[in-house]
Design a protein that fits this description.
The complex is a heterodimer. By secondary structure, chain A is an all-alpha fold. Chain A has 8 helices and no strands. In chain A, helix 2 runs parallel beside helix 5 and helix 5 crosses helix 7. In chain B, the strands form 2 sheets. Chain B has a 6-stranded mixed beta sheet with strand order 6-7-8-3-9-10, sandwiched between helices. The radius of gyration of chain B is 19 Å and the shape is globular. Chain B contains 10 helices and 10 strands. Helices cover 41% and strands 24% of the residues of chain B. By secondary structure, chain B is α/β, with parallel strands linked by helices. Chain B has 2 domains: 173 residues, 3-Layer(aba) Sandwich (Rossmann fold); 61 residues. At the A-B interface, helix 4 of A face helix 2, strand 6 and helix 3 of B. Chain B: Keywords: ATP-binding, Nucleotide-binding, Transport. Chain B: This is Phosphonate ABC transporter ATP-binding protein. Chain B: One of its GO terms (molecular function) is ATP hydrolysis activity.
């Protein structure tokens, strides 16, 4: 188990230079990047939107519950929801969900191409398949996922507002006052760092799992699952490391 | 011309190819035949560089293919076309997009030139008017023909075909064989076909190599098949009782 982790890690690192080698044809790569941006970005918008709105709503309600009967001013809830969403919830939860949706999809797509000899066919044509099939996905994810996370953060705060203000938990003015208190632009920077790192992890790990799949449909299923599991674990580890590096 | 010298290939402790020497000649349809597990597919994959030999050399004309770096291999591959057993057409692309993919990737032709070339290749394989269909909307035989069209779109010097007739009815098989043979002749290219279809052997086998347990069991042309006294060849070619009777009748 441990030796497999190290062997996979070594293989992954040695594979990256091939992935990021010079494209044969920039136009074709750009076309592929655009397609991937659409698949990853537009294709994941609804799920990210739904999750974000509920995360915001639940965060607001539960903090209101926990602070009930204390001397902490109620507008603090707006402040807590905002910072929690920006620093942690929007990037981490969104990317964990995207790892499940996008990651498994990428692993299955590339693994299917491997099994149907599409990758061999491209190699024989002279295409650097590591680059053509993987780099556009990674670049598309690096562009689109931070934008999705940004949307998730905004939607989450709106979700918190919708869940708490109309239900009378606190007033609109209190919520807005909280949102506007002690804003640190640095937290937005942390959000973007996290979303970029997570985007790289979830796409590259999934591509790796799909690209090197061997065997039949059972192995393809396993690779797809492995892509999600490994992606999620690595995202959580990276989350911890980034938190440590950027906030301590 | 492609020449192999003392090619060996092992997977773990199992040696699949045991020192092969053979020349695949230019302008001819070169056939690799043999029973399942004889090493045909391994040899074809070695020839196109999808596998690397344990030892030995592969010469593409005067270039030692086995000693080239990744970049040089990719350049040689611009001159290579391959028809896969399952056609390996990209499902998400139309027939036209499949055929023009190598042109889009490697040439600076105009849209009109690409379109004309696609139509010309489709005409060669007798498939005009299917440009906008997806592979899933075409039959197995049509997919093979699209595969051939894609393989020849960049005017390759070397054409490889892995079991071109597998899964096809005899009539369609003859059409596919005829297409490959005529493309080989008209373009004077080196064609290597991996097959166990006996019709192909007798129809288009100009230079045949029979693999048996990783070694060359017999080599010759279709004309020499009936004259040969090799038991190995005869056991393979006339494997069924019907063909045995036919052979006795003909010979």
């Amino acid at each position: 188990m441990i030796s497999k982790i190290f062997s996979d890690f070594g293989k992954f690192i040695l594979w990256l230079p091939k992935v990021f080698s010079r494209p044969e044809n920039f136009k074709m790569y750009w076309k592929e990047i655009s397609r991937q941006m659409n698949d990853i970005g537009i294709g994941s918008f609804i799920i990210v939107f739904l999750i974000a709105i509920f995360i915001g709503a639940v965060t607001a309600i539960q903090f209101a519950y926990q602070m009930g009967g204390t001397l902490i001013p109620r507008y603090y809830i707006g402040y807590i929801v905002r910072d929690m969403t920006i620093i942690e919830m929007a990037p981490t939860i969104s990317c964990l969900v995207l790892s499940g949706k996008v990651g498994s999809n990428i692993a299955a797509e590339i693994g299917g191409m491997r099994q149907k000899e599409h990758i061999d066919a491209m190699e024989i044509m002279g295409v650097n398949t590591s680059s053509y099939l993987v780099m556009p996905k990674i670049i598309a994810a690096l562009i689109v996922i931070p934008l999705l996370v940004c949307v998730a953060a905004i939607v989450s705060i709106i979700g918190a507002y919708i869940a708490s203000v109309p239900t009378g938990m606190f007033s609109s003015a209190e919520f807005v006052q909280g949102l506007r208190s002690w804003f640190e632009g640095y937290n937005v920077f942390i959000m973007f760092v996290k979303s970029i790192v997570f985007a790289f992890i979830l796409t590259s790990v999934s591509c790796y799992q799909g690209y090197f799949v061997k065997g039949g449909s059972i192995e393809l299923g396993k690779a797809s699952t492995q892509a999600v599991v490994s992606g999620n674990i690595l995202i959580l580890i990276a989350d911890y490391v980034i938190a440590l590096v950027l906030t301590v | 011309m492609i020449r192999i010298e003392q090619i060996r290939k092992s997977f773990g402790d199992v040696e699949v190819l045991k020192g092969l020497d053979f020349t695949f000649e230019k302008g001819k349809t070169n056939l690799i035949i043999g029973k399942s597990g004889a090493g045909k597919t391994v040899l074809l994959k070695l020839l196109v560089g999808l596998l690397t030999p344990t030892s030995g050399k592969i010469w593409y004309d005067n270039v030692n293919f086995t000693e080239l770096d990744h970049e040089a291999v990719r350049k040689i591959r611009m001159d290579v076309g391959m028809l896969f057993q399952g056609s390996a057409l990209f499902d998400s692309m139309t027939v036209e997009e499949n055929i023009r993919f190598p042109m889009d990737m490697f040439t600076k032709k105009t849209e009109k030139e690409k379109k004309d070339r696609v139509n010309y290749c489709l005409e060669i394989v007798n498939l005009e008017g299917v440009n906008d269909k997806y592979p899933s909307e075409t039959s197995g035989g049509m997919q093979k023909r699209v595969g051939i069209a894609r393989a020849i779109v960049l005017e390759p010097k070397y054409l490889f075909c892995d079991e071109p007739n597998s899964g096809l009815d005899p009539t369609t098989s003859i059409v596919i064989d005829g297409l490959i043979a005529s493309i080989t002749k008209e373009n004077n290219i080196t064609t290597v076909i991996n097959t166990h279809d006996m019709n192909s052997v007798m129809e288009i086998g100009e230079n045949i190599v029979l693999l048996n347990e990783g070694k060359i069991g017999w080599q010759g042309s279709k004309e020499e098949v009936l004259k040969s006294e090799s038991d190995l060849l005869h056991d393979f070619i006339f494997a069924s009782p019907f063909l045995q009777k036919l052979k006795d009748h003909v010979i």
